[in-house]
Amino acid sequence: TIEHARIIPRDCSLAGAEIRSALERRLAGDADAKLPRDDERLNAIVSSFDPTLCRQVLTGLARSGTYYVPTHETREMDARAGDPDYRNDPRLAYVPERLRGFWAQDLESRDHASSPATAAAYRTFFDHGLSITRLAFESGIPVMVGTDANDTMSIPGFSLHDELLHLSRAGLSPMDILRAATTVPAT
After folding, report:
1. Which end of the chain is more exposed for a tag (fewer CB within 10 A), N or C?
2. 3-state secondary structure of 21
3. Torsion angle, CA of 39/40/46/51, rounded to 10 degrees?
4. Gap between the Cα atoms of 138 and 186, Å rounded
């Protein structure tokens, strides 16, 4: 499986190979490997989306039997960290106070680390991830529902319903969404 709506969008981008290479070099200990700023990286991924490359990537994933769990919930947190309506979700009343405190710190650090340009890039990338999920599904990649429940703003129980709505926004039919939450994972 591939989790999170960030890897496939990157690999469907003409900038993807360079970004992947820089990340791999950095992870291997190369302190000189230059990583682009978040806004640069996200904007490059979205702006250099290549439909032909994406079809190749998605066809290969479908042939290999890869399943996709986009967990759009996690990308929504990146995109909406500074949104007061998001941060004051009334459903937070069901989250233990201590965990809400950790989440508030996480939201604060994401929001403070983001310039307006970076915040806009995260919002655009979130929407782009929804489009990629639709393309993945249309390419025959089985999509499964996942939420990373208890991750920041992924409120257990509610997050499942939120993720179902994200899959609807991605263009999956109601029946395909139900399958993504039931029979596809069971298979």
Report:
1. C
2. helix
3. -160
4. 20
